[in-house]
């Protein structure tokens, strides 16, 4: 479908192919690099929306009036709002198992730190743990140390994402609201999705490229060779 149109007809490679080309000293033009990164982010978002809609649709046909799993993430004006809209049920799982226990036990005398740390535990530690356990068979294939090393890029992804979401959550908790003007809304949406697109290269499902290789690739897209 969409992969065939972009990769075969428009000659826009996947992120993994662009990374391989960069590492072999035959990089694609910067514009093509950004195109493949934006396309990969869009494909991932559509995959999440498709599967969540499928399962929620089945549940609703069975009589359960469940909230949507993915609800207009392109309208997100803050990273916290993006986290809530993009993958609602995964977010709820992380909140129940990581945010709530942390929030009610840690840093009670420091409300902002308490909010940030609880959010970080959910969006960072919980997120990383869930995805690591999802590919736990890699431990049998390459050993614990090798599996963790292959997972370093995703750990970086989780740490940066959780830091951004944590800061966004703290800002909301102290009353800072995103702008409501048209230009303010557009700026906020652009900021959120620029962050998501730039971070996407570190959070791919494939673990064939190291964190350093991905960092160098991102630097090249900003013209830093």
Description:
There is one protein chain. The chain is mostly helical and 225 residues long. 72% of the residues lie in helices and 0% in strands. The chain has helices at 2-9, 15-23, 30-61, 79-86, 88-103, 111-134, 137-150, 152-173, 182-200, 211-221. Helix 3 packs across helix 9 (182-200) and helix 6 runs antiparallel to helix 8. The longest helix has 32 residues, at 30-61. The mean pLDDT is 91.
Structural key phrases:
72% helix; mainly alpha; single chain; globular; 225 residues
| C-alpha geometry | globular
Number of helices: 10
Give a short account of the largest sheet.
none
Rg, nearest Å: 19 Å
Low-confidence regions: none
Structure summary, number of beta strands? 0
Order of helices and strands: HHHHHHHHHH
Structural class: mainly alpha
Helical coverage, percent range: over 70%
Give the mean pLDDT: 91
Give a summary of the structure in a few sentences:
The chain is mainly alpha-helical and 225 residues long. It has helices at residues 2-9, 15-23, 30-61, 79-86, 88-103, 111-134, 137-150, 152-173, 182-200, 211-221.
């Amino acid at each position: 479908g969409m992969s065939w149109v972009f990769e075969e007809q428009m000659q826009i490679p996947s992120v993994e192919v662009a990374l391989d080309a960069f590492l072999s000293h035959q990089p694609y033009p910067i514009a093509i690099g950004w195109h493949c990164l934006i396309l990969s982010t869009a494909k991932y978002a559509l995959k999440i929306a498709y599967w969540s809609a499928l399962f929620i649709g089945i549940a609703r046909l069975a009589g359960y009036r469940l909230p949507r799993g993915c609800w207009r993430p392109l309208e997100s004006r803050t990273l916290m709002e993006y986290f809530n809209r993009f993958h609602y049920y995964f977010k709820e799982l992380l909140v129940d198992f990581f945010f709530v226990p942390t929030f009610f036990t840690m840093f009670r005398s420091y409300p902002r730190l308490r909010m940030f740390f609880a959010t970080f535990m959910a969006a960072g530690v919980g997120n990383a743990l869930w995805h690591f356990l999802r590919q736990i068979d890699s431990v049998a294939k390459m050993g614990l140390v090798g599996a963790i090393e292959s997972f370093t890029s995703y750990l970086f992804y989780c740490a940066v994402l959780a830091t951004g979401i944590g800061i966004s959550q703290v800002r909301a908790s102290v009353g800072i609201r995103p702008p409501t003007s048209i230009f303010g809304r557009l700026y906020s949406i652009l900021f959120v999705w620029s962050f998501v697109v730039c971070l996407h290269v570190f959070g791919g499902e494939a673990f064939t490229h190291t964190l350093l290789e991905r960092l160098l690739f991102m630097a090249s897209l900003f013209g830093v060779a």
